[in-house]
Amino acid sequence: MGACLEDLRPSGVPQHRAREWGAQNRVLQKHPARMGLRRYAPLVSTDAKRLRFLVVEDTDDIRDLMVRMVVREGHVADEAVDGVEAVAALQDNSYDVMLLDLTMPRMSGEDVVRWLNEHPDRRAGLRIVVVTAWAGERRAVLQELGVHDVVQKPLRAQRLRELIAETNLETFT
C-alpha cells in the first residue's frame, strides 16, 4: 500500500501562494490494495474527534469538492464512484457519515441503502445523508428505507458543518 501527498489547492489560490496554502491544507492519500479506494485525512491534528466519511458520488468534480470540504473541516474521507464501490468500502470499513448520491451507474444510492438494511451490522452507527438534485420525488421511498437526511445539491460548507455538529452530538454524547 503506497502513500503520497496531494495538494488540493483550489484553483483560486495562485501558484506562488500554493506552499503557504498547502502547509495547512495538504491531505494524505492512501491506496488500499483491495480496490481503488482513496482516503483523505488532514495531516495536522485537531482537538475535536475526527469523523469518518464515505463520499459516494459518480461526478468527479462534485465528489472531489465534497471530499475537500470534509477534510478542511478536519475529518477523514474515503470516496467511492458508485454504489458497487460504496458497498465494497462498507464491507471493509466502518464510517460515521455517508454522503450518498442517488443516481449512479452500476448501483444506485437507493440500492446501497437497501444493501445496508439487509446488513444491519454495517449500518450500525452510520448516518446516511443523501445529497442529490432530485430528492423531491424520491423522498417517500427514502423515508421508507430509513433515510431522513436529504440535502439538495450543491452541498454548502455551512450545511456540512451543521451535519458534522449534529453527528458529533449524536455520536459522542
What does this structure look like?
By secondary structure, the chain is α/β, with parallel strands linked by helices. It is 39% helix and 21% strand. It is built from 7 helices and 8 strands. An 8-stranded mixed sheet has the order 1-2-3-5-4-6-7-8. Helix 3 packs parallel to helix 4. The longest helix is centred in the last third of the chain and has 16 residues. The protein starts with a strand and ends with a helix. The N terminus is likely disordered.
Defining traits:
173 residues; alpha/beta; 8-stranded mixed β-sheet; 7 helices; 8 strands
Q: Report low-confidence residues grouped into runs of 5 or more.
A: 1-35
Q: Which sequence of SSEs, written as H and E, runs from N to C? A: EHEEEHEHEHHEHEH
The main β sheet shows up as:
8 strands, mixed
Strand order of the largest sheet: 1-2-3-5-4-6-7-8
Shape: globular
Provide the structure class: alpha/beta
Please give the radius of gyration in angstroms. Answer: 16 Å
Q: Averaged pLDDT, please?
A: 77
Strand content: 15-25%
Q: Please report the total strand number as a whole number.
A: 8
Tally of individual helices: 7
What layout of secondary structure does this protein have?
Elements: E1 3-6, H1 18-25, E2 27-30, E3 38-42, E4 52-56, H2 60-72, E5 76-80, H3 83-92, E6 97-100, H4 109-118, H5 120-123, E7 127-132, H6 139-145, E8 149-152, H7 157-172
Parallel strand pairs: 4-5, 4-6, 6-7, 7-8
Antiparallel strand pairs: 1-2, 2-3, 3-5
Helix pairs in contact: 3-4
